[in-house]
Structures are given as structure tokens and as C-alpha cells.
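Example for tutorial group B:
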């Protein structure tokens, strides 16, 4: 199983990190060892002083495919979820400055929080609200209508490079409002009115 992540998919998040608006989707991956096991707390790794949450809509691939046309992309997923792409922002900034790959900052153990999945038919995928609460305060609020690349466009694009397999996950990018976590924080993700995950930070 692989996790394919999209970077810079919401204009306001691009602005908050002072990034360039990409011509094509920015793609990176997390290995299966990045998945935070169910019910485990997120433990801040010793190599970073600035771990950020990034709440993101997740897509679970349920068919094998390559070179998928955008109009057939809906056949490749039935379920939508919500998760966190934890990022060591200090490390990522150093790697970005040197033009190096981001893996150490993005793909470390526990960096992929995967919440509950729901049938996609429960939602309007072009107008899907999601939120992240930190200690009961809303810190991120997004809507899929603000994505630069929609889910079906992402599937078409990434499948040009990587064969999608059953069980692969796509993290579709984070809206603005990213920020740091510290031990004791509690993060709760909501997809519309569903609590998709609750994570304790240690
Ligand atoms: Zn992200």
C-alpha cells in the first residue's frame, strides 16, 4: 500500500507558506510505515522542533489502474475519509531551501493519520466541508470547492506516473491554517458532521 500526497492544492495555503502556485500538482509519497496505528497517540519525533498538522481529505483506491482518464476516475474509489499529513516544517524548510526531497520531513513514522472512511455517495464531493479542531478550537476549515485540482483530476494525473492499486490512499492537500502541535494537544477532524479521527499528541 502506498500513500500519494498532493502539495499546494489550496490557494490560501500556498500563500501562507509563501510558495509558488504550481503549474502541475506537487506530488510526494509516504510509505506504509508512516501510518499512525489506530488508537495510538502521535509522538513528536526528536528530530523536529516544529511539527505541523495538515488536515486533508483522503481517497481510498479500490481498483487497479494506470493512465486513468478523468471521466473514468470515479470508478476507482468508493470511499472518502479525512486524515492528517504531519510535517516537520523546520526540516522541510531546510530541505526545500537546498532543493532536496522532502521525505524526512513528510514520510516519517506516524506522519500519516488515517481516520474513518465513508461512502462517497454520502457527500457532495465538489462541496465537502471539513475541519480540524485543536483542543476544541477550530484551526483549519476547508471545502473541496477550493481545490486547485479536484479528486478526479488528481487520480488522472498521478496515474500517469504511478499504477494505482487497491488500498492505496491519496491525501488531497491541506487548506490554510496549518500550525504547530505540542505534547498534550488533542486533534479532532470532522468531515461534514462526522468525527473522522481524534488524536492525542505526546
Ligand atoms: Zn499535506
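The residue assignment follows.
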Amino acid at each position: 500500500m502506498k500513500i500519494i500526497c498532493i502539495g499546494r492544492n489550496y490557494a490560501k495555503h500556498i500563500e501562507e507558506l509563501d510558495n509558488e502556485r504550481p503549474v502541475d500538482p506537487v506530488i510526494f509519497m509516504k510509505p506504509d510505515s508512516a501510518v499512525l496505528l489506530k488508537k495510538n497517540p502521535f509522538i513528536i519525533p526528536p528530530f523536529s522542533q516544529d511539527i505541523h498538522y495538515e488536515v486533508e481529505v483522503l481517497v481510498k483506491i479500490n481498483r487497479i489502474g494506470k493512465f486513468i482518464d478523468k471521466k473514468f476516475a470515479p470508478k476507482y474509489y468508493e470511499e472518502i475519509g479525512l486524515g492528517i499529513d504531519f510535517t516537520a516544517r523546520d526540516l522541510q524548510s531546510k530541505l526545500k531551501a537546498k532543493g532536496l526531497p522532502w521525505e524526512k520531513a513528510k514520510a516519517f513514522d506516524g506522519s500519516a493519520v488515517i481516520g474513518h472512511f465513508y461512502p462517497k455517495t454520502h457527500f457532495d464531493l465538489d462541496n465537502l466541508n471539513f475541519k480540524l479542531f485543536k483542543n476544541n478550537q477550530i484551526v483549519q476549515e476547508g471545502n473541496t470547492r477550493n481545490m486547485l485540482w479536484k479528486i478526479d483530476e488528481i487520480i488522472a494525473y498521478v496515474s500517469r506516473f504511478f499504477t494505482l492499486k487497491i488500498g492505496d490512499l491519496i491525501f488531497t492537500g491541506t487548506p490554510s491554517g496549518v500550525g504547530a502541535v505540542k505534547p498534550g494537544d488533542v486533534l479532532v477532524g470532522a468531515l461534514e458532521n462526522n468525527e473522522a479521527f481524534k488524536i492525542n499528541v505526546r
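Residues 55 and 84 are 5 Å apart (CA to CA). Compare this with the pattern of hydrophobic and polar residues in the output above.
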